[in-house]
Amino acid sequence: MSKTIEIRWHGRGGQGTVTAAKVLADACLSTGKNVQAFPEYGPERAGAPLRAYNRISEKELRVHCPVLRPDIIMVADPTLLDSINVLEGAPDNAVLIVNTGKEAKEIRKKTKAKDSQKVLAIDATNISLETIGRNLPNACMLGALTKVTEIVPMDTLLEDIKGSFGSKFSDKIITGNLDAAKRGFEEVKEG
């Protein structure tokens, strides 16, 4: 990784979007990368739209501002596609990963993604309901991101999920999140 990779997350309060950015940062730190993870909130309430950001680099990071030209866009809540342009500022080679039960080609059409932009879909909501019992798509989205970008090895991501959730949640919730991440890795589809 010679350049800085910038990621912009779109989600709603309570979905674990900010937690996903932080877990990704921890996993990147575990592999020796320089990283930033930070949220941008509107009204701080459950269900309110929010953004979170990551910067990942082999070199020291000196920039401290929101990500304006994201290499990767993660959309945890597909209803946001109706109200915001998630591809705003994205370069021609950007990667868009959306939590949706729809086909990636439908998302490509809806977002008007360029042919040169990679669009992928993962039904993270359904997977999280099956594995965790709640709509918490963050671990599944992280698994999909790991598969598509290889930013961190999957085993490193799983260890950091376990470490991040270990003291806060029951074994059932931790196992559910690990299973969700694995399924995200296996089930993400390009369109």
In short:
With 191 residues, the chain is α/β, with parallel strands linked by helices.
Keywords:
alpha/beta, Pyruvate-ferredoxin Oxidoreductase, domain 3, 191 residues
Describe this structure in words.
By secondary structure, the protein is an alpha/beta fold. It has one domain: Pyruvate-ferredoxin oxidoreductase, PFOR, domain III (Pyruvate-ferredoxin Oxidoreductase, domain 3), CATH 3.40.920.10. 38% of the residues lie in helices and 21% in strands. It has a seven-stranded mixed sheet with strand order 2-3-1-4-5-6-7, sandwiched between helices. α3 (124-131) crosses α4 (138-149), α3 runs antiparallel to α6 (171-187) and α4 (138-149) packs parallel to α6 (171-187). The longest helix is centred in the last third of the chain and has 17 residues, at 171-187.
The CATH class, by name, is: Alpha Beta
Q: Which segments are poorly predicted (pLDDT under 50) over 5 or more consecutive residues?
A: none
The strand line-up of the biggest sheet is 2-3-1-4-5-6-7
Number of structural units classed as domains: 1
Name the CATH superfamily assignment.
Pyruvate-ferredoxin oxidoreductase, PFOR, domain III
Question: What is the N-to-C succession of helices and strands?
Answer: EHEEEEHEHHHHE
Return the average pLDDT rounded to an integer.
92
Class computed from helices, strands and strand pairing: alpha/beta
Describe the largest sheet. Answer: 7 strands, mixed
Instruction: Indicate the proportion of strand residues.
Output: 15-25%
Count of beta strands? 7
Q: What distance separates the N and C termini? A: 25 Å
How many helices? 6
**Second CATH tier, the architecture:** 3-Layer(aba) Sandwich
What percent of the residues sit in helical stretches (DSSP H or I)?
Answer: 25-40%
CATH topology: Pyruvate-ferredoxin Oxidoreductase, domain 3
What is the general shape?
globular
Q: Radius of gyration, Cα only, in angstroms?
A: 15 Å
